[in-house]
Design goal:
Number of helices: 3
Helix content: 10-25%
Radius of gyration: 15 Å
Strand order of the largest sheet: 1-4-5
Structural class: alpha+beta
Oligomer: single chain
CATH topology: Lipoxygenase-1
Number of domains: 1
Length: about 130
């Protein structure tokens, strides 16, 4: 997973699926609003997030607009999953009003509150630059 400085400004990320270990079968794209930085605190207060999946050559593979979000501050946007040696895209759009920690817990992350806190701290430091 790579998020360059310019890509982060454009809210883009690149995933090299061929570089993933053979045992990796799923990549989930999670979105969360930063807490306590003066921005919106729920997705209902911003335009519906739009997600596009493209090939390395820029060819559009799939698009998805996350609708019907209101009190949610975190959302599982989409999954890239391996099936019979081919990667596929699944739109998810599952929102979490309980925030990043609740979403991470649902993903099976050990100690989701600690990870959510670390992520939030890194985001806050990045926004303070």
């Amino acid at each position: 997973l790579e998020v360059s400085q310019q890509a982060a400004a454009d809210h883009r990320l690149a995933v090299d699926l061929e570089a993933l270990p053979a045992g990796a079968h799923r990549v989930t794209v999670l979105l969360a609003l930063p807490v306590g930085v003066g921005g919106p605190v729920r997705f209902g207060a911003v335009p519906a997030p739009f997600v596009a999946v493209t090939g390395l050559d820029g060819t559009e593979i799939a698009t998805f607009t996350l609708t019907d979000l209101d009190a949610e501050s975190a959302v599982s946007a989409l999954e890239l999953y391996r099936r019979q040696d081919a990667w596929k895209v699944r739109a998810v759009g599952q929102g979490y009003a309980g925030g990043l920690a609740d979403m991470l817990a649902d993903q099976g992350v050990t100690d989701p509150a600690a990870l959510a806190g670390s992520i939030q701290e890194a985001v806050t430091r990045g926004l303070a630059r």
